[in-house]
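Sample intake sheet
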Amino acid sequence: MKKITKIEYQKNNKDRVNIYLDDKFEFGIDLYIMIKYSLSKNMELDDEFISEILVEEDKAKAYNYAISVLSRSPKSEKELRTKIIQKGYDIDIANIIIDKLKVNKYIDDEDYSDRFIHDKINISKYGKRKIKDALYNKGIDRQIIDEKLSLISMDDEISRAYVLGEKKLKSMINIESSKKYVKLSSFLVSRGFEYETVRKVVSKLLSTDFYSCE
């Protein structure tokens, strides 16, 4: 057994305290942990109780780290779990933190997917295939991905691909007509549009381009 001989507030953070056991500094913890376990001077602690306190401290640190990550940019559940583990916390603590954040609505893969799709369509101008691959790599459930992307109509895809293709075609003035189809198709495929969408758009663009040159 070890006895708490001193508890002091940390100089640079009044929300944390230093715990001294048998007149030696032992560890620093969040103030709420001290209150949760009713720690006080002259209280005796066994090794098991100390371990429990330190695990709780790791949870508090991991939670605060996760909040700081989310404050900088939204993350999927998988992305955030990976960051917590890379920070040095074990997977059990990472899972506990993720569950707590989900309950508190700080992470929500459905909401994250909605925002991601909106940005990639309106800002990055991605096609559905590229968006689908990106969401899958972020650990989003396939069912969520399919449900969200099903809301994007073929007409919308074709319209966006056409605008991108039209802009690209204007930069291909000095390229031989026979090569335009391949280059334009490759460009739209790289932007994530499905092959059937690309075929329709490129055929229409080159048909228009042909007549505009006469």
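Comment: Confidence is low (pLDDT under 50) at residues 210-214. The two ends are 94 Å apart (CA to CA).
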